[in-house]
User: Fold these one by one.
Assistant:
Number 1:
Amino acid sequence: TAVACREKLTPAGLAGMKMLSQKGAVGIQASVCQIDSVGSQANRMEPIFKREPYNKLVPQVIIKAKTKDGDKLVNLLDAGHRAADAIVRFSDLASDFEEAYRVFLQDGNAEPLAKLAPTSIVFGSWDSRVTQAKLPRIVRSVIRAFNVKVLHRSAQYIPPLDYVGAGLLEKPEGKQQQQQDAMSELGLAHAPAPWSHGGVQVSGVIRRDATLNLEAIRALGSGSQDEDNSLKLRRYILGLSLVSLTAPQETSLREGCQLVQDSERGTEWNLVKHDGHKKSFNLSHGEALEYAKLTAESFGVGDDRTATFDVETATEALRQAKGERKVGRRRQATAQTESEADES
C-alpha cells in the first residue's frame, strides 16, 4: 500500500540549542511543533530534477517571460502550482497542459501529463482554475519536533547617533507619532521589537516522516489502456518518487534552523501492507536512481519544451470580473463535453 520512511534529525549545532520553527508556529501550546510542512518539503525536493544526473529523468519545461529588465527564464520545476501554475496557463503551452489534465479527469489517463510534467504527478497538483482535475500527492514528507518548549525574544535597535539630540535632524513636531514612525522605519531612531516568536527548544526528537503512496500509483493509467504501457508509466512514476524520497535533503531550512541526519540513529524503511503489517527493508539513493534511469528509458521521457508567457492573455483575464471568468470557464467546459459527446 505504501512505502514509509522515518528519519531522525538533529540540529547542526549543539544538542538542545534553540531552533526557529516554520513561520506561523507562534503560540504553539502542544508539545509537537511542525518544523517543515508537506508543501515546503515538496518545494525542496522537486527542484533536484533540474540538476545532473536527475535532469535526464524528466522533461525540462522552460517558460520565457519578457520583463522590463530583459528575458526571465522560469523552469516549471520552480513553479509553486506545478503544471497548473499561472506561468503555464498564460503561455503558449496552455492548451497542451489543459488537454493533459482533461484527459486525466475523464478516464484516469496520466500519460500525457507524465510526458509534460511528471513531477506534477509525483508531488500532486490541482488544476483549480480550468478543468478542476486533481492529482493527489504520491510523495509526502513532513518534519516535526517533539517535546518542545516555545521561546520568545525581544530586540531593540539603537542608532549609532542621537540624530535629533546632535542637531542633525529637527525634533518631531505636529504629527509627532507619524514622524517618529518614519524615523524608525528609516533607521534614524530607536526601534523596539518586543515579544516576538523566538523559535522552539527541543528536548525530544526531530523526525522526518515521509510516505510514498503506492495506491495512487496503481490508479494511474495510460491512453491505450494497454496494461504493458500502463505498467511502464507506473514504474516511471515510482522511480521518480523513490529518487525524491531518498535524495539527500537540504539541511538549511531557514535562518536559525539547520538540520542534519542523526548519525547515531539510522533511517527506518518499511513497506506497509493494506492490513497494517509492516516489513522493514533497506533502500539506498543509488539503487533508487538506477531504477529510475531504467524505468525512464523504458517509458520514454518527454521532450524538453520552451514556451513564452503571453502578457496579452494574462492582461485580458485580469480585465474580466470574477463572475465573468467563472461563466467563461463553465461555457468552455460545457462546449468541450458536448464536442466529446458528438465524437462518440
Number 2:
Amino acid sequence: MNWSLVHSSVYAVLTKRGVYFIGSILIFLAAIGFHQVPAQAEWLTMETPHFLITFQAGQESVAQEAAYYAELAHQKISEALEHEPKEKTQLVLVDSSDSANGFATPGLGYNMEHYWLVYGAPNTELRSRIESWLYTLAIHEYTHTLHIDMTDGWPALVRSIFGRLGRPQFTSIPGILWPALTSPNGDLPVTLLEGFAVYMETINTEGGRLKDSLWEMFMRADFVQKKIMTRDQSSGIYSYSRFTGGAPFYMYGAYFCDYIARTYGQKKLYEIMHENSKGSSWFINDVFVKVLGKSWPKVWAEFIAEAKERYAQQADQIKSQPLTTMERITRTGELATSPVYSPDGSQIAYAQGGRHREPAIRVMRADGKFNHTAITTDVVFTREGSSWSPDGKQLVYSRSDYVGEKTVNDLYLFDLDSRRERRLTYGVRATGPTWSPDGKTIVFVAKTSTLQTSLMAMDADDSHVRALIEGKDEMQFSSPRFSPDGKITRTVRESTISMPTGFRTDNCCK
C-alpha cells in the first residue's frame, strides 16, 4: 500500500476534474447540512487496487480495515453487476459525528464515498445483525457507486467527452431540467436507487435491513392496517402525515427489489439496471417492459398483492396465539420511545419525536394523564431515553451538540422543579445514562475510540469520570442498568460478528 500526506485543508485527491468536483460537493454538503469535516487535522491517503482512502492521522488501523472491506465490496458488487469503474473510487473516513451514516456521490466529478466512523444506535435497523459497520457501509455505498457509474451507449460517449454531468441530489431542480445525461441510473426513482442498495447490502452481509424484524413489523403494520403506500408515496414525493417507520423509499424499495429477484430472477433485477444505464429509454416504465415484459405499475401491483397475502397470513398466525392486552396511554408523537417509571412509580418519562412532532422529553402520570413537555430536546435517535434520579426530581439523558468541529453526544441533567438544564460532560460522546439507586453514580456508554465504545461511570456531581469496562474489537455497549441493591451493573454488549449478549460488572461504585 502507498501512503501520502494530504494537505490539512484538502481531504480528497484532486484529479483533472477535481476543482469542479470540490466546488460542487461543497455546495452539495452545505445544502443538505452534513457535519463539517475537521479541516485542521493531518490527513493521509492509502492507495489500494480500486480505492484511494483518505483518513486522519492516527486512524491507520481503521483505514486498513476499511480498505479490506472496500475491496471485498468491489469484488462482490462488480462481479454481480459485471461492471468496474475506470478510475479508483475516492473514500473519505470521517469521525466528526455520533450519528451513523454514509453517502456516495458518483454522479459528480468522480466516484466518491464518505463513511461516518460510528455504529448505529442500539435497537435500530442500522445495528440489527450486522457483523461490521464498515462492511455494511462498504456494500451499500459501493452499490450506489457502481450502479450510477454504469453507463453504456450514447451516455458513455457524452461522458467520455464532457466528464460527468450529473445533477446534485437533494436539490429542488426538476430532473427534466437537469437530467443525469452521463449517469442515467442517477435519475432512477429513489425507491429503486435506495431499495437496490439495501437489497445488495442484505444478500452480501450477515445483516442487512431486509433481515431486520423492525422493518418487517413496519411493513406488516402498513398492510394489516390498510395504509399501504402507492408508488409515488413510497418514493418520497409527498410529505407524510403519519408515522412511516423511517424513509419509506428504503423500505418499500428494498422489498420491491427483493420481490423482483425472487419472482423473475436476480439477473433480471440486474438487467433492469443495465438496460436503464444505456439511456435508450427516457422512462423507467419502458425499461421494465423491455426486460420483464410488464410495466412498472403492473409489477408493483403484483408485489403489493403478494405482500398482502403474506402479511395477512402472518397476522392470522400472530392472532392465533395468546396476546398480551395493551392500553394506549399516549397520543402525542409519531415516535414515543424509551419510557421509564419514576422511582415511586407515579410518573413516566419518555422521548417524543417524528416528522411532525417537536422532539422532547415528556412526563406524564402513570395512567397517562397530565402529559406535558418537560424539556424540548432530541433524544429519540440515541434510543436510550432518560433516567430518573432516586428522589424523582431530576432526569439525566444524552443529546447531541457541537464540540469544536464535531457534533457529538454528551450527558445533560434536567431539574424538574427549576426546569433548568445543566451539561454534565463535554466531548465525552456519551449515551445511555442510568442513575445508581443511591444517587451517587451515573453509569453510561461512551465512544472512546474510532468504532469503539466503553462502559463508563461518573459521580453524580459530574466528577471522577472513569472506565468500568474498556471496549475492544469494536465492542458496542448499550442499555446499562443497576441491580436493585446498586452493587451490580448489567449491560448489553455486542462485538464484531456476534449477537447481543448480557454482561455484568460489580466495580461501578468502588
